[in-house]
């Protein structure tokens, strides 16, 4: 899973860390290693101007350590802008654990990882991501208070996936309002790529609204399960990007909008839950802009999850969390209109708004 223009096997040609394009002035990168548990993890802290860096932990069987480093850097950077544009007093961080979550994850490994998180003294707060569960966060909580997204029985708000999906749904409806003049998704042809916890919950919202939903996933078992539950169509072709559709919703891993796919896409809107959907933001965002394809910035519309875990830290009730997540609709519309007015990509419009908030806080802090 290479998620940047710099391929993992080429990274050795530049400075190992600081020379990477994805490094982007990270404040801190922590390498965690424990022989006894087999833990190999990397924590990236991109920016803490607005508050402690918060971001989930992903466990993935990366092809090599360069790939893992590149992923954590891009993901933690994305968290900075996600929190900033959502109005949260949080910085951006992320962690990756190298390994197969199905066969190599143990309670001992998770506790050891928690000890490394604890050693950062609250500068980084972790949560769940790909390959992790709420139960894993409960295990981490045994050794550090700097974790959120824990189970309700432990005093938390549980799995953030449903609220993440709701935020994506709100962002998608806003994009439809902008593009089609109505946010009603009934009758729209929508392809959802990736039906994990968030993807499935999104499918539920779309089906309830009357959309024509087609699903795609690497797991045939999941496809059959979701089809049986929601009555949707399983994609049977071999090039989803070339299919006629109203909305493409990438909800798996990132960089699906890349050199190989960006000119094939026939969707009028791209709005999904995956992080880092644009392989190269400036390049592929511009191509979508030139092709009049509306891209709802992923770090905005998938922010429901971080709103949920932030709410856990701040003591919000579910009503307040839902209200803040629903506001993704308004922010998405604002960004899409801003991009049109200023003749810039939606990614640039969103980044400018987020960066302005960070710069303003930095200036306040320097006084």
UniProtKB/TrEMBL annotation:
Keyword Protein transport: no
A GO biological process held by the record: amino acid metabolic process
Keywords: NAD, Nucleotide-binding, Oxidoreductase
Coiled coil location: none
UniProt keyword NAD, yes or no: yes
Residues reported in the UniProt entry to bind NAD(+): 194-199
Protein name: Glu/Leu/Phe/Val dehydrogenase
Organism: Bizionia argentinensis JUB59
Organism classification: Bacteria, Pseudomonadati, Bacteroidota, Flavobacteriia, Flavobacteriales
């Amino acid at each position: 899973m290479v998620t940047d223009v710099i391929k993992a096997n080429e990274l050795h040609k530049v400075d190992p860390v600081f020379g990477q394009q994805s490094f982007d002035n990270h404040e801190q990168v922590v390498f965690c290693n424990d022989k006894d548990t087999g833990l190999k993890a990397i924590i990236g802290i991109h920016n803490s101007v607005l508050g402690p860096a918060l971001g989930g932990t992903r466990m993935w069987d990366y092809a090599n350590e360069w790939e893992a480093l590149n992923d954590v850097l891009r993901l933690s950077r994305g968290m900075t802008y996600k929190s900033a544009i959502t109005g949260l007093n949080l910085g951006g961080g992320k962690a990756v654990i190298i390994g197969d979550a199905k066969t190599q994850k143990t309670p001992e490994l998770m506790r050891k990882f928690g000890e490394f998180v604890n050693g950062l003294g609250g500068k980084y707060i972790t949560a769940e991501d790909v390959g992790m569960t709420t139960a894993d966060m409960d295990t981490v909580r045994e050794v550090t208070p700097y974790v959120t997204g824990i189970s309700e029985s432990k005093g938390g708000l549980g799995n953030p996936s449903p609220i993440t999906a709701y935020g994506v749904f709100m962002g998608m409806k806003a994009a439809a309002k902008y593009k089609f003049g109505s946010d009603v998704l009934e009758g729209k042809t929508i392809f959802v790529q990736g039906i994990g916890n968030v993807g499935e919950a999104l499918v539920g919202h779309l089906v309830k609204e009357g959309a024509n939903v087609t699903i795609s996933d690497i797991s045939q078992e999941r496809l059959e399960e979701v089809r049986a539950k929601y009555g949707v169509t399983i994609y049977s072709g071999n090039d989803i990007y070339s299919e006629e559709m109203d909305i493409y919703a990438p909800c798996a891993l990132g960089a699906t909008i890349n050199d190989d796919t960006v000119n094939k896409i026939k969707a009028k809107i791209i709005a999904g839950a995956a992080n880092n959907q644009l392989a190269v933001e400036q390049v592929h965002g511009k191509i979508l802009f030139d092709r009049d394809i509306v891209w709802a910035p992923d770090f905005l519309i998938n922010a429901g999850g971080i709103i949920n875990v932030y709410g856990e830290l701040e003591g919000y009730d579910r009503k307040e969390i839902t209200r803040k997540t629903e506001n993704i609709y308004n922010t998405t519309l604002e960004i899409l209109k801003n991009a049109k007015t200023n003749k810039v990509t939606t990614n640039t419009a969103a980044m400018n708004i987020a960066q302005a908030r960070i710069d303003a806080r930095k200036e306040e802090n320097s006084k």
